[in-house]
Amino acid sequence: MDAIVLQILNGLDKGGAYALIALGLTLIFGTLGVVNFAHGALFMLGAFCAVSFKKLLTLAEVTKVPSDLGFPVTKEVFYLEKWFGQTGLTIIDFAVPLAILISIPVMILIGLAMERGLVRHFYKRPHAEQILVTFGLAIVLQEIIKAIFGANPIPTPAPQFVSGSANIGEWLGLGQFVVYPWWRLIYLLFSLSVLAAVFSFLRFTTWGMVVRAGMQDRETVGLLGINIQKRFTIVFALAAVVAGLAGVMYTPILPPDYHMGMEFLVLSFVVVVVGGMGSLPGAVAAGFLLGILQSFASMNEVKSIFPGIDQIIIYLVAVIILLVRPRGLLGRKGVMET
Amino acid sequence: MAKFLRNDLVVLAIFAVVVLAMPIWLQPLGAGYPDLLQRFAIYGIFAIGFNILFGLTGYLSFGHAAFLGVGSYAAVWSFKLLSLNVIPAVMLSIVVAGLFAAVIGFICLRRSGIYFSILTLAFAQMSYNLAYSVLTPITNGETGLRVLRADPRVIDGMLGVDAKGVLVTDLFGISMSGYSGFYFCAAMLIIGFFFAMRIMRSPFGMMLKAIKSNQNRMSYTGFNTRPYALAAFVISGMYAGLAGALLAATDPLAGAERMQWTASGEVVLMTILGGAGTLVGPFLGAGIIKYFENIFSAFNQQALNQAFSFLPEWLQDIVVGVISPFVGEGWHLTLGVVFMLIVIFLPGGLMEGFRRLGRLFTSGGNGPDRRKAASPAAQPQAAE
Question: Kind and range of the H or E element at A180?
Answer without folding.
Answer: strand A180-181
